[in-house]
Amino acid sequence: MKFFLDTANLDELRQALAWGLCDGATTNPSLVAKEGREHHAHILEIAKIVKGPISVETTSNDADEMVRQGEEFATWAPNVVVKVPMTTEGLAACRRLRAKDIPVNVTLAFSANQALLACKAGATYVSPFVGRLDDIGHDGMQVVRDAVQIVRTYGFETQVLASSLRHPLHVLEAARAGAPVSTMPFKVLEQLFKHALTDVGQEKFLADAAKLAAQLEKHKARV
Ligand code: E4P
After folding, report:
1. For the CA atoms of 95, 53, 190, 141, what is the dihedral angle to 10 degrees?
2. What is the position in ligand 1's atom list of the atom closest to the CA of 132?
3. CA 209 to CA 213: how far, in whole Å?
4. Ligand 1 pocket check for 51: Cβ under 6 Å
5. Long-range CB contacts for residues 157-161, cutoff 8 Å, separation at least 24
């Protein structure tokens, strides 16, 4: 499973890259706004360090405008993926951008039928938002499971990009579902490393190694 970082923060991206755990990045207007920088300039900074796909979101409800923005974004870096919303206009824009060979991520997908529509529109990625569905009492991961099954059944080229992941169990469940890509906030990536027993076990091994070294020193002093 590929790991994308759901962030526009350069330090987080650099750290994840250093760990070898950043296969790409997803941004949205909310994430870029948090960085307090101009959109275009900031995406260029991200593109300097992230070589994998970088999703950049269009900001319109109109297909013509989405296509215009998408064509512009595609000139910013070769690895830009244009994000369009899961609407009739968004899917129209998706078809037109794909016809020009521009990769597209259909975002804000909340049902398996929406994922199916995105596949039929030729989307490169479709992003089911798991956490936001969980927030309203639905089983968000079921959409990922269904979407993966639909893609496999019909051999669509669209990749299911499990999105809006909020905790490590979401990543595990997306992996179990066979999602080819998950995008997660940096905090969730960090959490994947953690286990209390790892910390306790390592502390004990280091303490015992220190005891061993002390015994060896004593032995050397005696002979
Ligand atoms: C990904 O492309 C989305 O922008 C992101 O996963 C949304 O996550 P949120 O629901 O935590 O805002």
Report:
1. 20
2. 10
3. 6
4. no
5. 157/122, 157/124, 158/115, 158/118, 158/119, 158/122, 158/123, 158/124, 158/125, 158/126, 159/124, 159/125, 159/126, 160/115, 160/125, 160/126, 160/128, 161/4, 161/26, 161/105, 161/125, 161/126, 161/127, 161/128
Angle between helices 39-49 and 10-18 (to 10 degrees): 10
**Cα 101 to ligand 1 centre (Å):** 25
To test ligand 1's pocket by mutation, which of 125, 138, 164 has the most ligand atoms within 8 angstroms of CB?
A: 164
Statement: residue 223 has pLDDT above 90: no
Give the single-character DSSP code of 158.
P
b/e sequence 92-108, b meaning 16+ C-beta within 10 Å = bbbebbbeeebbbbbbb
Q: For the ranges 12-16, 44-48, 99-103, 218-222, which has the lowest average pLDDT?
A: 218-222
